[in-house]
Amino acid sequence: MLIDSIHSPSDIKTLDTDQLLTLAAEIRSGLMNRLSKKGGHFGPNFGIVEATVALHYVFDSPKDKFVFDVSHQCYVHKILTGRKEAFFCDAHFDDVSGYTNPDESPHDFFNVGHTSTSVSLACGLAKARDLKGETGNVIAVIGDGSLSGGEALEGLDFAAELGGNLIIVVNDNDMSIAENHGGLYQNLRTLRETNGKAPCNLFRAMGLDYRFLADGNDIPALIAAFRAVRDTDRPTVVHICTKKGSGYAPAETDRENWHWHMPFDPETGKELIPGGGESYGSLTCEYLLKKMKADPRVVALAAAVPVCIGFTEEKRREAGRQFVDVGIAEEHAVAMASGIARNGGKPVFATHSSFFQRTYDQISQDLCINRSPATLLVNTASVYGMHDITHLGIFDIAMMSNIPNLVYLAPTCCEEYFAMLDWSIEQNQFPVAVRMPCNGVVHSSRRFDTDYSGLNRYEVTQQGENTAILALGDFYQLGEALAAYITEKTGTAPTLVNPRYITGTDDRLLEQLKARHSVVITLEDGILNGGFGEKIARFYGPSAMKVYSYGLKKEFLDRYQVGDVLKANHLTPEQIYCDIF
Amino acid sequence: MLIDSIHSPSDIKTLDTDQLLTLAAEIRSGLMNRLSKKGGHFGPNFGIVEATVALHYVFDSPKDKFVFDVSHQCYVHKILTGRKEAFFCDAHFDDVSGYTNPDESPHDFFNVGHTSTSVSLACGLAKARDLKGETGNVIAVIGDGSLSGGEALEGLDFAAELGGNLIIVVNDNDMSIAENHGGLYQNLRTLRETNGKAPCNLFRAMGLDYRFLADGNDIPALIAAFRAVRDTDRPTVVHICTKKGSGYAPAETDRENWHWHMPFDPETGKELIPGGGESYGSLTCEYLLKKMKADPRVVALAAAVPVCIGFTEEKRREAGRQFVDVGIAEEHAVAMASGIARNGGKPVFATHSSFFQRTYDQISQDLCINRSPATLLVNTASVYGMHDITHLGIFDIAMMSNIPNLVYLAPTCCEEYFAMLDWSIEQNQFPVAVRMPCNGVVHSSRRFDTDYSGLNRYEVTQQGENTAILALGDFYQLGEALAAYITEKTGTAPTLVNPRYITGTDDRLLEQLKARHSVVITLEDGILNGGFGEKIARFYGPSAMKVYSYGLKKEFLDRYQVGDVLKANHLTPEQIYCDIF
């Protein structure tokens, strides 16, 4: 195969057009090999094969520097920069991450996994180049809905002022993860329909030079377009139109579900391990649809990941105007939720724990200062959540629970989750966030409160003595196991507490525990620093109570095995028992 | 005076044009009365007098709902909505805040103080109106550089998709706090120069309807423009051009310095209490200019508040391309700093503690995951900082110190601050933030390390016994006073520790302290929740050490007296002594 002779980008520069086309086909076979067996970002990579080949043909990486936005479309770049074995050779799948990664290659400059960062990062590379008096192109590649994110728009706006060489390749495949949202995508459509000639042009309005290429899957045309802007002395947009999932019919047809895909049979496109069973996503969707039918003021908000609360295309249609996908625009989503709540609506905004990081200030300023009674659903907030360094769900407690006025609730099971969610939607006093459990859908026949407005009252679920276990959220089951283990080992049952509220301490209960307990153990599914256990430790600081706080170390984990991480942090009943007794 | 008969917006609807002009003049006299004696946002309010009069003339507040961006330009709105005494009557100055405030009036919907939030909040009000089947206009008023903020751009992009009635008044005064930055302001200039007719139009590119008004200080023209869009059924931008500081010559001339102004003599424009003396702003500027001259890779970044590190217009010119004001775009600033550092530059980005909230995700993802050795200077991070509910500087420890890989340093005085800053600029291992002291420029003859790469080593500045005081950053002086007080009262000197590192515990030292101490006191200038003291409490949780953590309660303070807040939080040596001994 031709690919056998490609070890670095310089190896493709001597190929002729036919060979480049052959190479593109071989690259797709490598992508198919990895993605069908391991899963991953299918549509973005199949769509950008030709553009990546052309970029490496025209530019001289790593002297010329590429920054891939979100970087989930960097697989082809990896194949061309010395990492092809991770795609063609099954034993090497784990050699690479799913994102750009400077630890893997000098052709990668950043670990990137959140959207909308490429233009700003590229501006920085370009600025440093200019300060040092060096030369070379800096190229940001952005698409898949990322343009609507505030950071991208800030970057585009600033780029014109930066001046000098900067090339922004807008990979326009007319899709985010789901369909695109926002007025600017109407402008992209107009530009597509006018072959880039419409006088009203978002990029020119931002002060940038602009070129258009209708067929972003045509290698010779791409090469010509990139050559035309190479070594430009002005920030320049190259708007290319690509087909998401190009080259694989099921992915071209159902672009939303093939954005990221589980392992599948390449012949049929069918998943190898079919999903199924209960999930908090679909349960939440069914619950919200029911609420919406009963109350026109209820509205669900998503920011480009509607499926994290089960809103598939069909469910979105069912919800009608009571479902809003704002696109990749988390800041807008939280502020808009505050506005909706302020004017008597009942908004529920859901996204992943990691993406709530994009809207800290809006949670604080727009929502919490104003005490707007909106509901935030924090998804995959857990060591059991996503395992990539850029998508970790273990920082939200530290980030959100220290914001005044917010009520952050940690349900321990399915029934408690819906009790809390229902209360939150119906109340109009507090901004509320609910940390969706992430250790599977656990059911319980315990009785749960329907009113959580008496803040910071912890629930004693088992009255014991000597030791009290405060087991937060989806670590409650770990607390149950630990309680059983301690009982078995010592013959004395400890007290077990479901704290429920992450954002405050139940001082009265904590005071009472002093009477018959000398040890308190806290368990939380997140980093310890800035977290729940430290608040308990502070409460007992001046007292004789011994406090042991268990949770995760403050670190950026990457592609981890949950079991390994739990062990490393002493998060098994046996380890905790050994530590203390 | 005509103003005597104005008690609510309905009172101006019967006035004729001459009377409205008279009213505008009287309003300016009220503004002058308050601002010359109390200080405040001068330019924004003098510039928007006519527009606010016209808005209240045409629309029917509070059924029609105004959202003022940043809301530092809401004084005229306050005068017209029942709060004029706070401007005309000195005894009532303190009746109102400097921002919109729902506690003051049903004409205000949000506490707002950060920029770029109005469009998203207004989208929320409009969405709730539509869900409830109600009518009425929702009007966002945005200007003063706010358009470049990511949240504003997300909001503009989404607004078109929202549909229905939404009016966005773009108050274009060609200024941010300093000059505007970003390519979109070139487009605004083109629109001004073409009387709104240029075919390339940022707002239309975002999918919005658009109207232009050349003279935004002309009441009849404003009334006509607002009438034309009243009850529109589509999101519509009204672009009005106003003169910042209009009606007061010094403010029209020197717009940057009159954006916000200290009390002054109206005759001369001279400040009543001249500034002067040392400030960390000007000291930092002089230091950075010197570094820049010695090293072309050093670059200072600001986000529309360049003066927070002393970069006046003159100093910005002196720094040339080694100073970059990105405009109101904190997300972009942090990501760009990461890119600069990644490519061998030495970026220093400074802004206020409260504004760092706008870039949590960029600090985590763009900067810290990538270990980019950029420097962040965190200004007014203190109970001594800004006192408005929207600008508090007491949350940054909780927000930033729990992000992995970040080294957050807390200097105790001027000499230590510059030692840390210099180390940070010269090193290339860590993303570093420095918490600028805020309790005046305190000098010290103590010797300070020049190398801080051995992380988390606390410094014992006074060896004592029984009690150890860990006094962080600019609460170190409180620690000294407490140590002296304890010595005086007990006859035994406590140990005094300068922790220096906010982001980690010195486990070895903390362990050693157990030998001769039974009490540890932590002092920090920020909220306790998620802060430094809790980490110390967690460390000692399983031990016999008594830990007392002192800092601020987790709450949104507003317009407070520092002394009151310190007392309420037991932050005087006497109170602490009484609590413990």
Helix content of chain A: 25-40%
Question: What is the mean pLDDT of chain A?
Answer: 97
Low-confidence stretches of chain A: none
CATH C-level name of the largest domain in chain A:
Alpha Beta
CATH topology of the largest domain in chain A: Rossmann fold
Describe the structure.
The structure is a homodimer of 581-residue chains. Chain A is of the alpha/beta class. The first copy, chain A, folds into three domains: 2-261, Rossmann fold (3-Layer(aba) Sandwich), CATH 3.40.50; 280-435, 3-Layer(aba) Sandwich (Rossmann fold), CATH 3.40.50.970; 459-580, 3-Layer(aba) Sandwich (Rossmann fold). In chain A, the strands form four sheets. Chain A has a six-stranded parallel beta sheet with strand order 9-8-10-11-13-12, with helices on both faces. In chain A, strands 2-3-4-6-5 form a five-stranded parallel beta sheet, sandwiched between helices. A five-stranded mixed beta sheet of chain A has the order 14-16-15-17-18, sandwiched between helices. The mean pLDDT of chain A is 97. At the A-B interface, helix 6, helix 7, helix 8, helix 9 and helix 14 of A face helix 6, helix 7, helix 8, helix 9 and helix 14 of B.
